[in-house]
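Sequence in, structure out. Go.
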Amino acid sequence: MAKRRLMRITALLALALLLPVTPALADDGPPDGDGITIWNEDYTVEAGDTVEDDLTVFNGDLTVEAGGTVEGAVVVLNGNATIEGDVEGDLTVVGGDIYLGENAWVEGDVVCSWNCDLDQEAGAKVEGSIIEGAFPEWQRFPVSPPHPMNIRFPEADAVFDPLMTFVRNVLSAFVVAAIAVLLTLLLPPQTARVGQTMVKAIWPSLGYGVLTAFAAGTTIVLLALTICFAPIAIVAGIVLLAAGLYGWICFGAVVGQRLLKAFKAQDVPPVLAAGLGTLITSLVVALIDTGANLVCCLAPLVWTTVFALGCASLGAVVLTRFGTQSYPSTSAPDETEDN
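Output:
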């Protein structure tokens, strides 16, 4: 018997570690009948609510408020248990802490195991035994495999939202690349001038871009707070977005030219270089946006780099007055191409 229960608790622990971290489907009230198993979500038995069978919580915290009741056993794996109400069965916590408030009443045993601390108020009642330690008697565990019908599955949005975000970002990248082709056809020297200014005067471009974004953003917010100047705020916001987009396209044109030169491509029109470079840079940002959580601690560094590139592009647009004049430290586009 002890070996069988040891195998069951080991299997449950392994399942909890291998289970993907996904949110559980929210529940509108206490379960009735066959008990409940909560995966990767905190659960609260509110005052006046009753769980009529066993309650198991994996990777989440459990709270039983004063006046709340669990008629069966309670098991919490990798989470904390705060008990202010009644638990009519055993209470088992593995990999978390137990707090028994002054109104808590546990009719069975309290098992606090494996990195678990027990805090019991003076008025808390435990009718069974209190077992503490990393390796208590395994027969004390009131654990049985969860019923498949009681397992909470993730909402569809948790699965499809990242996919739809990725698709939307990819489509946006192609739209921006198409705009890059159109602008390069209409404004070839201006696009080249802004791109070269960003490359040759990166620090002035970055400085002017940060100042412009901060000053223009603050001004737009202040104008938007008023009724009379709200239309001006809208126009200013559109101009700022257009400047940022144009700078990003000019940066993409430079990236496309450098990539084509690296692959020794000959006689490639600037229009194709701008479209290709803008598409690649936009797709990279789209992938970062979709998988930012996977980057973990590197995400702030990656997004800081993207923000810096965006500000530098905006600054180059400001320094060249949308490409209509050369910045003092740069050469004319035609001279750059000849060199």
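Check: DSSP finds nine helices and 16 strands in the chain. Residues 156-338 form one domain.
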